[in-house]
Amino acid sequence: MKQFHIAVLVLGILLFAGAAAVPALAAQFEAPAFITSAGQSPGALMVRVLADQAGVANVFDATAAADALAGAKSFILVIGASMKGLGAAGIDVPEEFARVESLLAKAKELGIPVIAMHVEGSPRRGSTSDELTQLIMPYASYAIVRADGNDDGFFSQVAGQHGVTLEVIEKTADAAAVLRALYGN
Q1: Which residue has the higher pLDDT, 173 or 14?
Q2: Residue pair 130/93 in contact by the 8 Å Cβ criterion
Q3: Exposed/middle/buried for 123, CB within 10 Å: 0-12, 13-18, 19+?
Q4: Which of 96, 144, 152, 100 is nearest to 122 (CA)?
């Protein structure tokens, strides 16, 4: 009986220690990450700053074409449609969808895993952002979403439909810790 208690205690310690070490063991993605916008909102630049803070080597280009993925080991697409941002970039909505679709096709062709992110919350939700999400999720293996952008369960539903692991964060800044864990930094 004493051996049983010791075994249970050791198992408990290992499980607790393993849980504490999960972020380091959970590294699922490799750098360099290629980061771009899906919708030309400021969120993509925020993610680039957060990736830098997390120690994730990255290349950022908000309006990149598919050939920009050469050399990338992972691909972060930041979802958030901004009509002002699209106008400033000289891109209309159909062109942005075509650009994102070509990037996703290239990532699939090259075997580059995709992380979908929506870090601007409910203010950046709308029909165009939701349609971009529908386009991106079939290609994604992981998604990081700010909680107030998922109040209606939209991201949970779409991620579930496509078998995408969904991480919900409370604040945009919380994405840095998630990226740190995903990249093993």
Answers
A1: 173
A2: no
A3: exposed
A4: 152
Domain segments of the chain as ranges: 28-182
At 122 the pLDDT is 86
Specify the pLDDT at position 123: 84
Specify the CATH class of 28-182 in words: alpha beta
H-type alpha helices, 30-149? 43-53, 83-89, 93-110, 127-136
122: exposed, middle or buried (Cβ count in 10 Å: 0-12, 13-18, 19+):
middle
Residue type, 115: I
Q: What was the pLDDT predicted at 21?
A: 33
**CB–CB of 117/145 below 8 Å?**
yes
Q: Phi and psi of 15, rounded to 5°?
A: -65, -40
pTM of the model: 0.84
Residue with the bigger pLDDT between 7 and 68: it is 68
Contact status, residue 99 vs residue 58, Cβ threshold 8 Å: no
pLDDT at position 168 is 96
